[in-house]
Amino acid sequence: MTARERFLMALEHKEADRVPIHDSPWNAAIRRWRSEGLPANINPSEYFDFEMAVFGADTSPRFPVKTVEESEEYITKTTPYGGLRRDHKNYSSTPEIIDYPVKTRDDWEKIKERLKPSQDRVDWEGSWLAGTKEDDRGFDSILETDRTDQRLGLPGSRKAREQGRFIVYATPFGYDRIQSYVHSEQLLMLIATDPDWVRDMYEADAQLSIEMYEIMKEGGFEFDGAFILCDLGYRNGLLFSPHHYDEQLRPTFRKLVHYFKGQGLPVLLHSCGCVKELIPRFIEDGLTCLQPMEVKAGMDLVQLKKDFGDQLTFMGGIDTRAMADPDPSVIEKEISTKIPFAKKGGGYIYHSDHSVPHNVSFEQYKHTLELVKEHGAY
């Protein structure tokens, strides 16, 4: 059975030979694994046989990226969105945003003029996730390659098709994407005080994502699904009220879901944090799969399966803290108590509950995947 067949069966709530497997190690974790035995000449996705292949386009305003300052620990760069950020050199955590490009509506209108679809937003012969490897930190949680491993764009997608992988068009959207332009505190204030502007930002960005999908499809990419990304929660709940979600972001979410499903694609949503309150809305609006079910934010895979497993596929929910525990029985309990229940009737895909951090050793991670295959078999 191919990975594509396995994914599609899970998304259709059917039991395959085993649960599909995909994951998202941080670049810092990959570098650690290289030093602990991961061969230097093989991509991690190939080595671990991850089953989802991720492609996308550059939907930023494409401002030049320049290094402004560099120390032994940090590197400060401009962003393709027009801002300034400081990153740990090992890219092991979320960067510090020092400056944002949009402070007024006029700032936004000038940037919006740059959000036009074009062929050169797709790196046809370049990186695995086209145009985003160095530019869009928001994608780092789903990259299965490190920055030294290059994939080909269109040829890479054809190779993934030959390998039988499940191929997705990936794009950020909504609140998460607009935080690249507007400081989080200001954006939350705008949600309360200037909803028309917020909706305009959501819609302009989403429209470009749709147009770039069409360009990639017309150019030869073949997709099996759409993977849309927008963090909507934090540890204790939603980042803003369900009312504001309904009023401002939900129409954009619905537009994306309906568009991609109209293309015959199942739609997977990446949304970190505690988003339980929105799940009935996701289901009503046609979402196929929710990822990653962050354990420390209270996203309980077993309970979610009980409550919504007949209407929604779940991808994730395996605590990375258990992977990192020196006592192997911790991860063994985590997987043996969750996956056998979640896999019943299909509707479950393995993934960590966020991204695999660098405190998980190569041996610990290999053991984790061995357990997934053991307990995920039908």
* Major sheet strand order: 1-6-7-8-9-10-11
pLDDT averaged over residues: 91
The total domain count is 1
How widely separated are the two ends?
Answer: 13 Å
Outline type: globular
Coarse structural class:
alpha/beta
Strand count, sense and barrel status of the largest sheet are: 7 strands, parallel
- Give helix % range: 25-40%
* CATH architecture descriptor: Alpha-Beta Barrel
In percent terms, what proportion of residues is strand?
5-15%
In quaternary terms, these chains amount to single chain
Write the CATH fold name: TIM Barrel
Question: Can you walk through the features of this model?
Answer:
It is a single chain. The protein is of the alpha/beta class and 378 residues long. It has helices at residues 3-11, 27-36, 44-47, 105-112, 154-163, 174-178, 184-193, 195-218, 242-262, 279-284, 301-308, 320-324, 328-342, 362-375; strands spanning 52-55, 67-70, 74-78, 84-88, 96-99, 166-172, 225-229, 267-270, 289-291, 313-315, 348-349. The protein has one domain (3-64, 101-375): TIM Barrel, CATH 3.20.20. The strands form two sheets. It has a seven-stranded parallel beta sheet. Strands 2-3-4-5 form a four-stranded antiparallel beta sheet, with no helix packed on it. Strand 2 and strand 3 (74-78) form a beta hairpin. Helix 8 runs parallel beside helix 9 and helix 13 runs parallel beside helix 14 (362-375). Mean pLDDT is 91; it is low at 127-151.
